[in-house]
Amino acid sequence: MRTVIFDLDGTLADTSGDLLAAANACFIGLGHGPQLGPDDAGTALRGGRAMLRLGFSRLGGATEAQIDAQYPVLLRAYAENIDTHTTLYPGAVDAVKPLRGNGIKVGICTNKPEGLAETLMRNLGVRDLFASLIGADTLSVRKPDPAPFHEAVARAGGDSRRALLVGDSDTDHKTARAANVPSVLVTFGPAGGDMAALQPDALLPHFADLPDLADQLLR
User: Could you confirm whether 194 is annotated as catalytic?
Assistant: First the structure.
């Protein structure tokens, strides 16, 4: 069965605003002002520790132990306000529905913790569109290891020999290469201008192009 697996942050949804707010809550709690702003959206989509490192660098730096200590604080702050600013990218839902209508299985493979990803997708009202959701802590490994991708395909009822990964980062590109499947990278996210240099199998400027692109790559 043909399968399309999506990354979440920066691919299906722009989660950067809520992620940045959660990181800033850490700095405020430590007695500092907010250290991150909208221009740091690309860092936000690389994960919580990346945001903490950047923010602490603006305060003179921090040890990994200090960053590790703040990471649970960030996760709690994020869980409490997970969808205040987050929105699905235009056309995402309209692209998933025809894939399903064409008999293509769809799922999610993200490096966001599974519980947070489940909550976000339910809050956005689209969890039922996806047959599987694998998070950073679902297995003992995470992307770019290919195992989470293969698990997402399997739980969706698909076959990795006829699957592809839609993402927005070098991590997603590496995951697709490790899984020996086509890599489709979106160009509308914060790092969209950098995607061509990775030489994926396809670039995706608009979700409206995905159904036809998936049909071509999965023949």
Answer: no
